[in-house]
TrEMBL record:
This is Nuclear transport factor 2 family protein. InterPro entries: NTF2-like_dom_sf (IPR032710), SnoaL-like (IPR037401). The lineage of its organism: Bacteria, Pseudomonadati, Pseudomonadota, Alphaproteobacteria, Sphingomonadales. It comes from Sphingomonas sediminicola. It comes from the Bacteria. It holds the Pfam family SnoaL_3. Residues 1-21 form the signal peptide. Residues 34-150 form the SnoaL-like domain.
Amino acid sequence: MRVFVLCLGILAIAACKQAPAGHAAVTKAEAATIAEQAEANFTTGKVDDVMRQYAEGAVLFDAGHPTLSTDRKVQTGWARDFVSMKPADYHVPDRQIQLLGPDAFISSGTEVFTIESGTTRPTLSARFTDVFQRQPDGSWKIVHEHVSLPPASQGN
């Protein structure tokens, strides 16, 4: 009887590590595609498209603000500020994907894009880390994001 209970316990623990019913565990290739699809919304010019990528209660660290925010209204204001710069040509030349389990992964790297600044379109870059989590409805949302500016060049 003890062996049966022990085996049952081991099976229960193993089941906890599996993806929910109907969902296969995310692969690195799928995670990269999910991240790229989310990022494609950053340059649509629509605040709602940007915010749709974030889970309610997501923790966001923005490069242009000194403190983090979990407040959707504040985060939407940040997205509005970003969209107002008319970002374009967005790409990530050095993406790293780390799988955290069947329903979560990290996408990190350097994001490069142009913005509208008067009559010019300067190129900007920032470092980012996005934690994605599969939601109960099967969609993927960013639950934690940290964006920072690269350090100033140390001209030696």
